[in-house]
Design a protein that fits this description.
Chain A: InterPro entries: CPA3_antiporter_subunitB, MnhB, MrpA_C/MbhE. The complex is a heterodimer of chains A (235) and B (493). Chain A is mostly helical. Chain A is built from nine helices and two strands. In chain A, helix 2 packs across helix 3 and helix 6 packs parallel to helix 9. In chain A, 41% of the residues are buried. The chains are: A mainly alpha (235), B mainly alpha (493).
Chain lengths: 235, 493
Amino acid sequence: MLKRVLAIITILIIGYWLAEGLANVPFGQDKMLVGQYYLNHVKEQTGAVNAVTAVVVNYRGFDTLGEVTVLFIASTGVAALLWRRKRERTAKTPGSVVLTTGSKLLFPFIVLFGMYIFIHGHLTPGGGFPGGATIATAFLLMYLAFIVYEIPHKGFETTEGLAGMSYVLVGLIGLAIGGYFLFDWIWQTWHWGTSNLGRLFSGGFIPVIYTIIGIKVGTELSGIIDNMLKEEVKE
Amino acid sequence: MSQVASLLIALPLISAFFVPVLKRIKQSLIMPYLILITLIQTGIAGWVFYEVYTTGKPIIIMAGGWRPPVGINLYIGPFAALFVLIIAVVSFITAVFSVKAVKVEPIDKYAMLFLLLMLGATGMIATGDIFNLFVFMEITAITAYALTAYNKTGEAAEASMKYIVLGGIGSSFFLIGVALLYGATGTLNMAHLAELSTSINPIVAQVGLALVIFGLAVEAELFPLNAWAPDAYQAAPHPITVMFSAFVVKAGLYAMARILYLLQKANGWSSVLRLVLIMATLTVIFAELSALRQRDVKRMIAYSSIGQIGLIALAFSLGTQAGVDAGVFHMLNHAIVKAMMFLGVGYVGITLGGTELEKFEGLGKRMPLTALALTIGAVSTVGVPLFNVFWSKFRIIVATLQAGFIWPAILVLFASMVEAVYYFRLVHTMWFSGSGERVKEGWIVIFLLLLAVLVVAIGIYPTPAWEIVKRAGSDIFAVANYVKNVPLMGVIQ
């Protein structure tokens, strides 16, 4: 009881302190120093209509490379910690016919929609991470509906690695062509798609990178699901 | 040409992503591959170090070709160049050590996490953007969680759990702090932030800075938030412990110092500085007193390492040039000494099967060269003249007294005496008790002895190291210079 009261009091003090800090942040006033620059220049500098993806992939692409790495670490970490010599799925109750048939039917549609999301990252809300997560949802559905379903591991792991490598490679090509790591060579050197603003084949390297991220996130999250669903089998 | 230095980030990344592909080709190639990559990284870091110290100009890497603050820049000044080199060298040594020390499967996952831990620390030290710092901090922290639990024992899982919970809370605090600072200034670039720091409302600056410091204190192992550290050091694989102590903590400490000094013009800065001073002093006292009653040598040195970290934080919290220089010097010395100590202890651990104090009885007869390196490390850490740590400890205490803080100096000196007690107990156990047959020592001893030679060399002739460190220190302290070196676009309209 005493512990709980003390905890509540401490949290209230911290909350008040944070509120005090927040109250002095000038919200609503024009503090958009860098933000305004992005809004003014996003179209001619990156070719993206979606300003968020332009910031995330192009202006601050370094952060996204880092975030992709964080997810890679999460999936590698889970795999390393749950590693056993022999593991299998031990689910016992099969799903009903309605569930299995429904999942089978839905699976391609979900994957298709996921791909739609990451391919159109520079035009519509979304991008690589939501698209990849949607694809992983399709695999989760298969895992939940079937008691024996398994993703093809060898292929998935290799794809994951290759997708990550291609992201860095796109950056390194930028270093070779434009002189800067992660430089958008498709838009700024080749001027490819400059007359096509707002259509699918525009946006410089944003769709390319988002496709890579989508594939990578999709395989990674599916791998995490796979690792967590399997249990050790004693021989 | 200087943009090529972005390979420091790109190389470990692309190599880590290549490991799953390499695993398909041939599993036994993974460890040699790891050594090769860390060796190349050392080469690049050496080139960057040479470049920065001969031209005297920092290397500014602009990711994507965007000028800051629109894009993200990496700032490899004297400090970053020095520590990126240390990170690469220590990673190379631990990669070589890993071949012998890590037998637990899956090796391919270990190699990936190892490379990414190196990448995360490099990024934290090199970045010039406060949100990018957060991303690299997450990379470092999450690899550290996974590697702590890598041995899959109950003990390791518990240690990792503690770390993950504390680290998670810490990074959310850090993120809230970054959000507040962004809300107050409208920029995330460190140089731009420093320029705008005078205009921040004092309360926002205080709350934001305190949150950032608290968030980083988990990584930097300062007092109320370092409960995870001894457990993690003890339970992690031996090579990983070396990396934790030699550079993961340092990256956190550096980030803390960098952000603190960036905002030194902000109102309310000195009270945040005082907060760090109190935390640092308490860290030293608690860690050294806890080390005194440890029976496990690895855990004992882990506590000792935390105590030394507290000393560095103390030096950084003084707010003077002398203090920062001394702190950086201690960072360098501590990286060398503790890398050597943890390598030695880890080597004993895998040769004799454990790191309890009893295993070290008669080590002087059984493994004389390892025992010699451990002795040099122990004597040096205590701060005996003619060894490197003496100079940095001495400078820290002098700087503390100059800044007018009598009590912290006395407390820290007292902690050094405590340190002497348990280190000399260890030395006594190794040389004057027990007996045993000679055990054959492997080539890892070469690295131990090289590090030991470095310890003594800096101890006898500290001037060259001190010159390098002074430049690295002014990199942190002289913010005006830092801002001048970053090609900001000016205030954008």
